[in-house]
Amino acid sequence: MSNGQHSASSEAMPFGLSVVEGVTGGHDGLPGQQVHALAAPPSPRRRLLTLDEYVAGVRGGDRSILARAITLIESNAPAHMALAQEVLRALLPYTGGALRVGITGVPGVGKSTFIEALGMMLCERGHRVAVLAVDPSSSISRGSILGDKTRMERLSRHPNAYIRPSPTGGSLGGVARKSRETLLLCEAAGFDIVLVETVGVGQSEIAVRGMVDFFLLLMLAGAGDELQGIKKGIIELADALLITKADGDNRARALAAQAEYTHALRYLTPATEGWRPRAYICSAQTGEGIAEIWREIERFRDETTASGVFAARRRDQARDWVYTLIEDHLRTRFFGHPVVQGQLPAIEQAVVEGTLPVTTAVQTLIQAFESALQGEGTGS
Among the entry's GO cellular component annotations, what is one (predicted)? Predict the structure, then answer.
């Protein structure tokens, strides 16, 4: 069922999950829409929603309006971004109530299979589960996350679940901003658990760690070197390690890996104050370990809430996010300015050849940038 066909009342007709593509710009229902990458025939332009309609629709659990609000958030058009921020500001009092869990691991570790098994268990227990993704590569390759509608087929059909593929948009900073704001919209819509999947290992893990309460690292057993090239820094981000595919002939190897990781974790600095990460095993095929890891996540929430660490992390994340957005904005404005773009190649080449000191190069670019801004301000 498409979003356009969905009734405004989710009670009048049971809603089957619609997995919606991210966008690079434009918004369905807003002027200036541009459709990229999809070959489907153009659909009739929908009426522009008002701020009040967005807020009421999201708060009322209308999946169609939630999807349109997320598309608005993902748009890079300045007019859309302005309305999106108004929507977020109005919904902010209704956010923060969900347990936010980040999930990462090397390709092939079984993230989607695990998330579907965990999500189904939680939905059957009466929770409302949103699954988001952070995948900067998706803007180039339409990354594997965009296959979640088929890789999580059972979960995608559950009425208590909502899966949103990674927004496209180039830089990790842009993708992370859109994912973080999408998380807030899902909370305002009443989802009490948000699972944030990240692809591979690298900078996206650090971005996701900065927007979730609990960070889970999935690992494989029996793959030679048990560290599998995972950087120590990534392991130190985790609040728990989970060895997947612990079934059949691989179960003994998973238990051995669990013992090895348990020993190694003793020597690493915990990611969360007052919490000691542990290693667990699970099988998404048999269901073993799924309930156990969720009990660990609930125990984490209860203990860190009681100690004040949970609330302190949320405050720190909000403050850090302010500085992150400022840095991203200034970086984009600096490197996107025509004066900088015009001078940078020659200055960079001079630095590489050793004919210009790095500090001089940086000062030259910054002075050129600031002079250009002053000229723009005076109209000269």
Answer: cytoplasm
Residue 6's contacts (CB-CB under 8 Å, 6 or more residues apart) are 13, 15, 18, 62, 63, 64
- Residue pair 119/155 in contact (Cβ under 8 Å)? The answer is yes
In the sheet that 161-164 helps form, which strands lie side by side, from edge to edge? Answer: 161-164, 129-134, 193-198, 99-105, 214-219, 240-243, 278-281
Q: How far is CA 53 from CA 8, 49, 101, in A?
A: 11, 6, 30
User: What would the pLDDT profile of 162-172 be if each residue is shown by its tens digit?
Assistant: 998 876 555 66
Q: Give the other-Cβ count within 10 Å of 289's Cβ.
A: 21
The domains located in the chain, with CATH, are 313-378 (1.10.287.130)
Distance CA 276, CA 283 (A): 23
For residue 13, the model assigns a pLDDT of 40
Cβ density class 268-285: b for 16+ within 10 Å, e for less:
eeebbeebebebbbbbbe
Exposed, middle or buried: residue 115 (CB in 10 Å: 0-12, 13-18, 19+)? buried
Q: Confirm if 198 and 134 have CB atoms less than 8 A apart.
A: yes
Residue 175's Cβ-side half-sphere holds a number of Cα atoms within 13 Å equal to: 30
Within 10 angstroms of residue 222's Cβ, the number of other Cβ atoms is: 14
Is it the case that residue 360 has pLDDT exceeding 80? yes
In this predicted structure, the answer to whether residue 232 has a pLDDT above a threshold of 90 is no
The contacts of residue 104 (CB under 8 Å, 6+ apart) are 111, 197, 198, 199, 200, 201, 204, 205, 208, 215, 216, 217, 218, 234
* E-assigned strand segments in 48-177: 99-105, 129-134, 161-164
Q: How far, in Å, CA of 19 to CA of 3, rounded? A: 10
Tokens for 305? Answer: 């809430």
Percent of the chain with pLDDT over 90: 55
* Residue 243 dihedral angles phi and psi, to the nearest 5°: -85, 120
> For the chain, what's the residue count?
380
pTM for the model = 0.80
Residue keyed to tokens 């153009």? 42
Output the CA angle 320-142-216, nearest 5 degrees: 45
